[in-house]
Write a structure and sequence with these properties.
Layout (H helix, E strand, L loop, with lengths): L1 H4 L10 E3 L9 E7 L5 E9 L6 E7 L6 E3 L1 E5 L2 E6 L4 E7 L5 E8 L2 E9 L23 E8 L8 E5 L2 E8 H9 L6 E2 L4 H4 L1 E8 L7 H15 L3 E16 L7 E3 L8 E2 L6 E7 L1 H12 L4 E3 L6 E7 L27 H9 L1 E17 L7
Parallel strand pairs: 14-22, 16-20
Antiparallel strand pairs: 1-4, 2-3, 2-10, 3-4, 4-5, 6-7, 7-8, 8-9, 9-10, 11-15, 12-13, 13-15, 16-22, 17-21, 18-19, 19-21
């Protein structure tokens, strides 16, 4: 249930065609609260499909910031089901005789909570937070204020995120920061002292410019931090390395296009090992997270797909994966009940192919670097 309750500004509004097998008109804003320890307001905006024969719907968790995700709606025999597939969440309940309330249950994973959705009027509708303002395209890529401090050694995992305009990393090594800033796998970095793999840092930075940075702006901000605080100097060389190529399957892709915010940050947040919901992301964003977090070699995008997409990839990881995250992957279920391995999952669920290859790639050679200067 946590991931639905953590919907962030990085995940932006998308919609999907839905169907209704009922004479009851479900169009409108439906809203209600769940209480997983504190009250959280949920909103489902249902509108008739312009092409006819159904609806479009978008789900919001408005107490956790702007942004919505696609929901599918069906209605039959007085039962309404709202399915937020990408988050593994559903609301199912009975539609009242007057058509203005749905009493039922919110379910995500093994947990469930009671919920009553009411059809909002102009006077009662909760305001849906507007998407955050994007950083100007010509904004300076420098931090107004930035702190770099040693991480708590007891902190598990690592975090890269943006809250509003604040850039945050937790438990990240210099190698992690270089990978984020320059979109590089560890194999694409040569040289440097041993501590760049072992010393871990927390970074908090407020950019000089207002607004939420794009992916490229975020990378530029981290690059400026590395040069300023770590005194990083480098040069690049082309080398042939083992790699993976992501290509388009013979039957075409199975991704959902997202055209809502072409300049917004993508949402790629693991719900667990082998469970990756993806929102508003390019193929470059996807290959980047697979390169930096999952696989043992760089991933090259050869799909030819343009634009941004939403999808969820679920697989059973093996022991070669997630090493860069410092995670020990548990053995797969002995009874074989888990999802397929990564290569099969990418083909079956996304309509893409991941293939081993060798390819010329950019390699960063570190000329000099220092431990970060004091704040």
């Amino acid at each position: 249930m946590r991931m639905f309750l953590r919907m962030m500004a990085l995940v932006l509004c998308v919609s999907a065609v839905v169907t209704a097998q009922s004479t009851q008109n479900l169009a409108g804003q439906w809203q209600g609260t769940i209480n997983p320890g504190k009250e959280l307001r949920l909103v489902f905006v249902v509108t008739p499909n312009a092409a006819g024969g159904g609806y479009t719907a978008t789900a919001y968790s408005i107490d956790q910031g702007p942004g919505g995700v696609a929901a599918a709606v069906t209605a039959q025999g007085g039962t309404v089901r709202i399915n937020v597939t990408t988050l593994g969440a559903t609301v199912e309940g009975k539609l009242a005789a007057d058509g203005n309330s749905i009493v039922g249950t919110f379910t995500q994973g093994p947990g469930s909570l009671p919920v009553t959705l009411t059809r909002a009027t102009k006077e009662t509708a909760w305001a849906i937070p507007a998407p955050p303002k994007s950083m100007a395209s010509d904004a300076p890529l420098a931090f107004e204020v930035a702190t770099v401090k040693p991480s708590n050694p007891n902190t598990p995992g690592k975090i890269f995120t943006v809250k509003g305009r604040e850039v945050i990393t937790i438990n990240t090594t210099l190698s992690d920061l270089i990978g984020l800033a320059y979109n590089l796998h560890a194999r694409q970095v040569s040289g440097g002292p041993p501590w760049m793999e072992s010393d871990k840092f927390d970074v908090n930075g407020i950019p000089q410019a207002e607004g939420v940075p794009s992916t490229e702006q975020l990378r530029g901000l981290i690059q400026s931090l590395l040069k300023d605080r770590f005194k990083l100097t480098t040069h690049f060389e082309k080398r042939t390395l083992p790699a993976y190529a992501l290509t388009l399957g013979s039957a075409g892709h199975k991704l959902t296009a997202n055209t809502t915010n072409p300049n917004g940050l993508p949402g790629l947040f693991f719900k667990g090992l082998g469970n990756l919901p993806v929102r508003n992301a390019t193929m470059g964003d996807f290959t980047r997270v697979m390169t930096q977090a999952v696989l043992d070699r760089p991933v090259i995008d050869r799909t030819g797909l343009q634009g941004r997409f939403d999808f969820t990839l679920t697989w059973t990881p093996d022991e070669s994966q997630f090493r860069s995250m410092g995670v020990n992957v548990p053995p797969p279920p002995a009874d074989g009940s888990g999802p397929p391995g990564l290569f099969t999952a990418i083909q079956e669920q996304l309509g893409l192919r991941l293939e081993r290859t060798e390819a010329p790639v950019e390699v960063m050679v570190i000329d000099s670097v220092q431990r970060p200067s004091e704040n």
